[in-house]
What does this fold into?
Amino acid sequence: MKNKKLLWLIPVAVLVAAVVVYLLVFGVGTKNWQNILESVLEKVENFDGANKVGLNLIDLDNNKVPELLMTMPEKDGNYITKIFSVKDKKYVVNMVASYEDYLFEYLYNVKEDAYKWYAVTKESKKIYEVNIEEKETVKETDLNYNSDVVVVKKAEDKIEYEVDSKKDIWNTLEKSYTKNDTLVTDEVKENVENTKMLSSIDKIDDSKPLVYTVKSVKSDVYANVTEQTFHNYYEYPAININNEDIIAINKDIAKDNEYDDMAIETGFLGEIDVITYDYYVNGNILSVVLLHGGNESTWNTVYNIDLKTGKEIAVNDLLKDVDLTDVKAKIKEYAVNMMEKTGKDLNLKEYWGDQYDKELTNIKKELDENLASPKIVFRNADNDLILRVEFEVFGGQYTCNKMVEVNLTKNSDITEVKYEDYVQRGPNTQNK
It folds into this structure.
């Protein structure tokens, strides 16, 4: 019986030995990089005489052991970053110099189909590859920050450390460290898939963005708006997708908005004070919003495009899960109050008599029709669902077109959309 007990203990001894080896390799080993990098802060020579430095812990080479980044601003405005990495149970240092302040960002590279840490300049958004194994640690890439990458994570703000203070900064620094594999969330994956889709779109002109300005003209002909002098801009877009349906939409946009410089300068456009547009991409939905205004009127044309199919998305599809009952009632109350107020301010009842009541009935009827079948719906830069409704009020030469907006996602209040807010912003300012 005793021998059987001893035989039974043999597997247990093997198991214990395995656990000890595991702890030595993974437990002590994992702790080892912390001890090694913490020792960097104990040596004065690593600070090169700097009084204050910025510190980060980032796994730049994606090997599950982070690097310690020490950034020091130079007197001439340059920035020096020392990268301390663990190698053969000690640390090695790479030096990085820059003429512009930068942040480290974890990006998905569309061209390489890979997640990496890059150095990104704060102002110019130039992207630099970081390779701590090579002599040229940082190398500029040709990646476009707006189209070739997806931002997964920006490094935490550098932790400021005053060298002379001798304070224990390591615990704070260690808590700021996040492993790379926890950064790629479901939301990030969805953004990556959408970016891949955008990069694979067959464009009409590869040199131009997804939506671009066909023509933009500055004019001062109708510059007096709300008793202020503005420079007015006339510009209209084209959607850069090589698809029969989109090409047809572009023709409609050009037909309704095309103009020449001479027509504007001679006042041929008459009452129009502004033509401009915005566009937004949310997942597979591209929303292009054309805005026109003049003679106290504002009106919109909206195109919602499914980027996967190249087809226009019906308004009903965008609103299929939205109950507009209360919203429509609030808009109607708002609009009718404005109608009646403008009529009263102009004293039209006295001048028109019974004709005024007929005209008021007519514009109320048009409002009901617009509310029954909304036409202006889109998703904005924050992916909020926006409803805009047009209606007429008394003013201008007879009546003028007003427009109100409700953010359906945030259940916001009703606000008036005024073309005057767009007149002064200048050309090519969409989404900025």
Notes: Residues 2-38 form the longest helix (37 residues).
